[in-house]
Design a protein that fits this description.
heterodimer, A: alpha/beta, seven-stranded mixed beta sheet, B: mainly alpha, MetI-like fold, 2 domains, two-stranded antiparallel sheet, binds adenosine-5'-triphosphate
Chain lengths: 279, 325
């Protein structure tokens, strides 16, 4: 499954390291296998604070697995993942990574917001209740404080009027915006988006991308797995093309999306329905 | 089917020929078709006939029972409030409640064992369920009453006692009912837990909840909606299952009725008395169950199970390395 060692990664100019301190997200030679299938094959990437990075790649290439490893929803087999220079999910002891205590893992996860393809809102809670869950149960705010934080987060995604609605009463786009607010209410250092618009009807995609565009503009560090090439081209600072568990090509959207060099990137992009629009 | 087709055309044509207009005197537009419930006189006549036939059968059965020379309703009435019967009823209720509590706790533990990644715990739970669901409760009752054959002594040194003195019919009956009940509770709870979408756990963990809190605050409240109706049925089954301990002579409702019948030969009457009491208890429980289900289904969400209930089920610590990774 993994590509041969000879496969060189084509890197664009300049953005991979920062002058001051550690990158916001640093994935270093991570391996992950499910049974016999190696899904991540020593993947490395770094995202600087305030950057928006889009991850593209064919189905099954390991994009979701990568995001789930970053907040330790999946364990990793080798390598390391750091947020703000600190390991997630593991403690380093004598040159080895040991699974961290559940409470410590949870604390690190609270700093990382995640938005899922299928929203995963809690169906038995209102929009406000969903957004309050983190502040109440994790940040241990009082109900009143949490309500304030949650209301502000809902306002930020344009869902201020829908606090009392249950997920089943909302459209897909509205549900996804509530899910974004739920993550934002924890004031995360980094936001991970796993194909946030793939489960939406075409006419609802825009409102969610709009919220994300605004979020990127305010300086949130974002890792976005997406098939929305327009969004990637417009909003991303850098684009990573992932195939078979490694980063095959990375660089500015202009370079990766319009002037790809790796044959696999070329093949992937030309097979997209939106290929003509991009060219 | 031809009958129904006629109805359709009837309804269509009927629309145009019905007297036009409403109170406001508006003419009926040709497009405004009147909607009428499906069905014809023939269908209605058929359902009336069926209903009447059903009633006739029920009436005959009631009449036959009421006038049977072999059933003395006076005897039924006189034993209905009999103090021995009431004492038996009390034992039945005690057994039910205690077995439900013990079986419930053990069952939830078993369910959590079944969803952990710990293969040993999972296997133990599976074998337990395999045995207690796969053998008759009646046999389990007898086995547990004769447990002294396998384990003659319990305890150590000076604190040991003979099993025979400890295992009274009540203890044996309670043990058997609890152990058996636990196997079913386990399957119901496990079914509830796995019915909750895996994405719910992901979302809770991603927010920073610990696996245990994710289980207690996100998964179990949602699982309860699936668990409670099934558990209600199990509880009602348990009431009736207590009658099986009559084989080891415990004086619960059915045994008491049988013992009285042995003396006065009014077997049918006393069985009717026992059945009436079982029906009263199960009817009350059914009503309670309906209220609970209505409460849970009140809104699209807002299942607000009491905090204590949630905590009683809050044994997610077993799952730290398991179901919720
Ligand atoms: N929990 C799991 N158990 C076993 N295999 C898995 C699991 N999760 C993912 N995989 C496998 O790992 C591979 C990568 O999956 P992943 O979901 O990361 O791909 P992806 O790039 O997100 O694809 P898509 O664009 O379809 O979402 C796939 O072959 C998938 O079948
Ligand atoms: Mg995916």
């Amino acid at each position: 499954m993994c590509p041969s060692v000879g496969d060189a990664v084509i890197r664009g100019t300049g953005t991979a390291t920062s002058a001051n301190g550690a990158p916001a997200v640093e994935v270093h030679r991570v391996h992950k296998r499910f049974g016999l299938v190696e899904v991540l094959c020593g993947i490395s990437l770094a995202v600087q604070a305030g950057e928006t990075v889009c991850i593209i790649g064919p189905s099954g290439s390991g994009k979701s697995t990568l995001l789930r490893c970053i907040n330790h929803l999946e364990t990793i087999d080798r390598g390391s993942i750091r947020i703000d220079g600190r390991l997630v999910g593991y403690d380093e002891r004598a040159g080895q990574l040991i699974e961290a205590r559940a409470a410590d893992v949870a604390q690190r996860r609270a700093e990382i917001g995640m938005v899922f393809q299928r929203f995963n809102l809690f169906p038995n809670k209102t929009a406000l209740g969903n957004v309050m869950t983190g502040p109440v149960l994790v940040a241990h705010l009082s109900k009143a404080e949490a309500r304030g934080v949650a209301a502000a987060a809902l306002e930020q995604v344009g869902m201020g009027e829908f606090g009392a609605s249950f997920p089943a009463q909302l459209s897909g786009g509205q549900q996804q915006r509530v899910a974004i607010a739920r993550a934002l209410a924890m004031h995360p250092r980094v936001m991970l988006f796993d194909e946030p618009t793939s489960a939406l009807d075409p006419e609802l995609v825009g409102e969610v991308l709009g919220v994300m565009r605004e979020l990127a503009r305010t300086g949130m560090t974002m890792l976005v797995v997406t098939h929305e090439m327009h969004f990637a081209g417009e909003v991303a600072n850098r684009v990573f093309f992932i195939d078979r568990g490694i980063v095959v090509e990375e660089g500015s959207p202009e370079r990766v999306l319009h002037h790809p060099e790796n044959p696999r990137t070329v093949a992937f992009l030309s097979a997209l329905p939106a290929a003509q629009e991009l060219a | 089917m031809s009958e129904e087709e006629t109805n359709v055309s009837e309804a269509r044509s009927g629309a145009t020929f019905l007297p036009a207009g409403d109170a406001a005197g508006q003419a009926l537009d040709e497009d405004d078709l009147i909607v009428r419930p499906r069905g014809s006189r023939l269908r209605r006549a058929r359902s009336v006939l069926l209903g009447a036939a059903g009633l006739a059968v029920v009436a005959y059965l009631v009449y036959a029972m009421a006038t049977s020379p072999n059933v003395s309703w006076g005897v039924v009435a006189s034993f209905f409030h009999n103090s021995k019967i009431l004492a038996g009823l009390l034992v039945t209720l005690e057994l039910t409640v205690l077995a439900a509590v013990c079986g419930g706790v053990l069952g939830v533990l078993l369910a959590l064992m079944r969803v952990t990644r710990n293969a040993v715990l999972r296997t133990i739970a599976s074998v337990y369920i395999w045995f207690f669901r796969g053998t008759p409760l009646l046999v389990q009752v007898i086995f547990l009453y004769d447990i002294a054959l396998f384990i003659p002594q319990v305890g150590i040194g000076p604190f040991s006692a003979s099993t025979n003195t400890l295992v009274t019919p009540f203890v044996a009956g309670l043990l058997a009912l609890s152990l058996n009940n636990a196997a079913y509770v386990c399957e119901i709870v496990r079914g509830g837990i796995v019915s909750v979408d895996r994405g719910q756990i992901d979302a809770a963990l991603a927010l920073g909840l610990t696996p245990q809190r994710a289980m207690n605050r996100v998964v179990l409240p949602q699982a309860l909606r699936v668990i409670l109706p099934a558990y209600g049925n199990l509880f009602i089954d348990l009431v009736k299952a207590t009658s099986l301990v009559s084989v080891i002579g415990l004086q619960e409702l059915l045994t008491t009725a049988e013992n009285i019948a042995e003396n006065n030969y009014r077997v049918v009457e006393l069985l009717i008395v026992a059945c009436m009491w079982y029906l009263i208890v199960t009817t009350l429980l059914t009503l309670g169950q309906q209220r609970l289900e209505r409460y849970l289904g009140r809104s699209t969400g807002a299942s607000v199970p009491g905090r204590s209930l949630r905590q009683a089920l809050g044994l997610g610590f077993l799952l730290r390395r398991g179901h919720v990774s």
